[in-house]
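Re: [ENG-882] Designed sequences occasionally contain unexpected residues at chain ends

Forwarding the minimal case from QA. Structure tokens:
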């Protein structure tokens, strides 16, 4: 492409409020790359600076609610943010601040990834903060995106069957979440139609249930898959897709991102956030 072919670009602006994983696989860096992969302009506010790599999370410097607000307000005073997502919000104070900012600025297209624990078992939120996240952020959300362990902790029940998934989703809707996407990737052997393991996600919208299937990829390259899926949904909502289309596109994107993961690091490799052709 010659330089004259470059035209001013029309772009939607997305915001992530989440943890920073300096090793680049999860959190804000995953979100920024994913927004960019969908040609959205990425903005970000750091709720916690984590210390980690592909092998584990070693700690986190949580930010104050004030520091979080001071990052977000100048962005909102300057830009029209078309969609936003939250990831790791470690404290009650941060969650309350984020909820009031969303209300003050009347932000729409809000994806809540209720991040609870890292794959390696590090607690990313305490019980009180989780309770406030449910109470304050679920009612403001367009969709929430728990995986099975997160849904189990939120609904305080064991999830093993399709009925359990539905019960957990209905509970989360009763807490104010309009739409609930439960990611079934952690369910070994669930709904095996033809013996091949599937990664099935369940989207509950009002009274309806949609399922999204992909073949299960046997791999360790799963660092940041949740962040990447939620960011991809956010970008697609920003671009005007409806929730069903946004989830469908995001699911295909993450499947290909896992399949083409760079296989770096000694632990769980990050996925390929900039994957093409999904
Ligand atoms: O995948 C959950 C997650 C989200 N955000 C940050 C993380 C992790 C898991 O480690 O570190 C910043």
């Amino acid at each position: 492409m010659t330089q004259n072919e470059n035209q001013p670009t029309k772009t939607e602006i997305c915001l992530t409020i989440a943890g920073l994983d300096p090793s680049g696989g999860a959190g804000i860096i995953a979100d920024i790359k994913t927004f960019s992969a969908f040609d959205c302009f990425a903005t970000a506010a750091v709720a916690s600076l984590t210390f980690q790599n592909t092998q584990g999370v070693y700690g986190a410097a949580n930010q104050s609610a004030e520091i979080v607000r001071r990052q977000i307000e100048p962005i909102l005073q300057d830009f029209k943010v078309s969609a936003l997502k939250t990831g790791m919000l470690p404290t009650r104070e941060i969650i309350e601040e984020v909820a009031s900012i969303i209300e003050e600025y009347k932000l729409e297209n809000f994806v809540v990834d209720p991040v609870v624990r890292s794959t390696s078992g590090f607690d990313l939120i305490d019980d009180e903060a989780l309770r406030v996240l449910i109470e304050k952020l679920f009612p403001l959300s367009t969709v929430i995106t728990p995986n099975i362990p997160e849904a189990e902790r939120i609904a305080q029940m064991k999830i093993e069957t399709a009925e359990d998934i539905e019960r957990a989703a209905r509970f989360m809707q009763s807490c104010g979440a309009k739409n609930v996407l439960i990611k079934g990737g952690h369910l070994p052997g669930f709904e095996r139609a033809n013996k091949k393991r599937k990664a099935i996600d369940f989207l509950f919208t009002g009274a309806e249930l949609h399922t999204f299937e992909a073949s299960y990829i046997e791999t360790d390259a799963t660092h940041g898959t949740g962040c990447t899926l939620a960011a991809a949904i956010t970008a697609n909502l920003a671009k005007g897709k409806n929730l069903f289309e946004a989830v469908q596109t995001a699911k295909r994107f993450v499947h290909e991102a896992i399949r083409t993961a760079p296989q770096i690091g000694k632990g769980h490799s990050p996925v390929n956030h900039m994957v093409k052709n999904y």
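QA comment: On inspection the terminal residues look reasonable. The chain has one domain: 11-259. Proposing we downgrade this to a documentation issue.
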